[in-house]
Amino acid sequence: MRTIIFDTDIGVDDAFALAYAAKTQTILGITTVFGNVPVDQAVKNARLFSQQIGLDVPIFRGCSRPLALSPMVNSTTVHGGDGLGDVLTNPFDGQADNAISFIIDSVKAHPGEITLVAIGPLTNIATAINLAPEIIPLVKELVIMGGAFGTNGHAGNVTPHSEFNIWKDPHAADQVFASALPLVILPLDVTHEVLITGEEIRALNVPVLTSISKGYLKYSLEREGFEGMALHDTLTLSWLSHPELFTTVNAPIRVVTEGITLGQTVRKTTELASRFNPYQHCRAQTLCLEVDAEKVKQAFLSCLRQSAQR
What sequence ranges are listed for the domain Inosine/uridine-preferring nucleoside hydrolase (predicted)? Predict the structure, then answer.
């Protein structure tokens, strides 16, 4: 069990990850960021969902826009207008203490003890290390859901090249990937392999997860002919609990920040000499490219099913 700060742009799959984290990790706090929804809505969603699952941790408001790009219009197709399927009344407001200060202060207060789990755009993390680079060697690990590297045909889900979290703020992602932070990256290469059906969700007997996933499942059925969803963000917690179920490589990684491949994650794959080395001084990061999908899924289902029965 790790002590984690949970950084999220909370939508439907983020909520599944938070439910899993609440049962398997010690959550020091939840930091919110724009992404699936505006940051004010993310604060509201974090408060509402935490209440629904009986989680009592502090919640913080992070960045509201990308570092360099103009803010983008949020899509309501998958997660609904409120990010949680438009099925719950949300009485909370979007005000909260500053997430960047919380990350910096917490890491300094607990050197080598805190794992950052980031399942939205990496703007909060980039801002924290830009403001306080001295925290970089004090972070135990940064585990992110993001990127796509083409394994088994798993490329981008927003463009042919780019995954949503990275595409939303590629400059932040590139700064984080190129930093000395110790990263573990769970890209679409593995998250698209772990699928859960609507029937399996309903069998968990966790009413809030059943409710908020209805629209997501309807969209999936209409678009892909499959009533289910990939456990994208949840795999960050799967890594923390069961790293042996993943196959990894170690390589420096950068992010494309302009042009038609904006947001593409690119890893170094050769040691051949070149005139310009964009990976110079970048540390090798841990990149998950394959997963024992069935064991990961069953561990998740078993954990939440047992919790629901208590």
Answer: 4-297
Question: Can you tell me the distance from the alpha carbon of 117 to that of 173, in angstroms, rounded to the nearest whole number?
Answer: 14
Secondary structure in 3-state letters for 42-66: HHHHHHHHHHHHCCCCCEEECCCCC
* Distance between CA atoms of residues 163 and 155, nearest Å: 8
Determine the Cα angle at 69 with ends 135 and 186, to 5°: 55
Alpha carbons 30 and 8: distance in angstroms, whole number: 7
105-149: pLDDT as tens digits: 999 999 999 999 999 999 999 999 999 999 999 999 999 999 999
Asked if residue 14 lies in contact with residue 235, where contact means CB atoms within 8 angstroms, the answer is no
The tokens for 102 are: 């919380």
C-alpha–C-alpha distance, residues 85 and 88, integer Å: 8
> Which domains, from first to last, does the chain contain?
3-306 (3.90.245.10)
Give the model confidence (pLDDT) of 41-57 as tens digits: 999 999 999 999 999 99
DSSP3 helix / strand / coil % (the chain, rounded to 5): 40, 20, 40
For 247-296, the DSSP string reads: EEEEE-EEE--SSTTTT-EEE-------S--TTTTPPPEEEEEEE-HHHH
Which residues make beta-bridge pairs with 267? 253
User: Whole-angstrom Cα distance, residue 214 to residue 147?
Assistant: 26
Per the annotation, the verdict on 242 as an active-site residue is: no
**Do 228 and 196 touch, CB atoms closer than 8 A?**
yes
* Residues in CB range of 160: below 8 A, 6 or more apart: none
Residue 115's identity, in one-letter code, is T
Find the catalytic residue in 79, 154, 192, 232.
232
- What lies within 8 Å, CB to CB, of 141 at 6+ separation is 115, 116, 182, 183, 184
- Rounded to whole angstroms, the Cα distance separating 253 from 148 reads 11
| Contacts by 200-204, CB closer than 8 A, 24 or more apart | 200/228, 200/301, 201/228, 201/229, 203/301, 203/305, 204/301, 204/304, 204/305, 204/308
